[in-house]
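I'm stuck. Please check this protein.
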Amino acid sequence: MITTEQIYNLLNEKFPFDMQEQWDNSGILVNAQNISDAVLVCLDVTKQAINMANEIGAKIIVSHHPVIFNSIKSITKDDIVYSLIKNDISVICAHTNFDKYEFGTSYIIADSLNLEILDSSEFEIGVVVKVGSTTVELSQKCKEVFGTAECTLPHKEIRRAFICAGSGSGMKDEVIKSGADCLITGECKYHDMLDLSQVGISTITVGHDASESISLSTMADIIKNKFKNIKVEVFTCENLQYHI
């Protein structure tokens, strides 16, 4: 059996929660003060994730995205937090602190694409990788891994790429500073992609959820390797956006 605090302490050792961005809300967000012999790891705490937790007997969920992000002024029986409390399930969320982890989201994308990391220390979030292909060729490689990919400046020659899982909007300055020819990310606002294209930097987007779901197994393995006598399951739902 395992407690919520034991899981939290393990994750805090690997990627300290005080590393999270100021706007983030990572940590123990729902604490039922229970014990469990199973843990569910997921991207988002949804009704489907709660159903899966109940199926495997998990009283602890570890999610990447915070289940409570904005301030809550009221709770109804249809709310996720209500369901968690009703089902006696605790939730630990590891978001931007996991993004900043040496072997976190951006590292995992680079590894999945078999791209050599050139720099992983200069930027708090994101890594720079060596490429050697056009944007459209790199996009095809991304599509093989993530199932979908869209790009700008398709014929641009890419020597270096900046990888940022999730949302790459707001990372323009870091991308330009890195000397990258391309930004690989989950999603990016149109005007940010436009601004990057004006300085000759292409953008490849693979979907916010797709870019982060591949990192769940890493988080699950950390728990499995420490607590070998508990069940750890990864719940991966279908991508929110369906591509036809």
The longest helix spans residues 135-146. The longest strand covers residues 157-167. DSSP finds ten helices and 13 strands in the chain.
